[in-house]
Amino acid sequence: MTSRGRLKAAVYVQSPSAREELILLPGDYPAREVAVLVTNPEAWEEPPDGSNQSYGPILGEKGGAVRE
Description:
Layout (H helix, E strand, L loop, with lengths): L5 E2 L3 E4 L6 E4 L7 H4 L8 E3 L11 E2 L5 E3 L1
């Protein structure tokens, strides 16, 4: 694993400094301050090293939490 994770899906996040929408593409290795904004663990091919971010509940088909 690398020090920064590699994405396997396109994601949209808001830049923490410029407040602009960023489009991250599959294969990108986003900077650490941008990587922490990616909340879907399924977006990562290789998660960032030392990533202990909480992804929140996984929602089921009807919107109810499947797991915390």
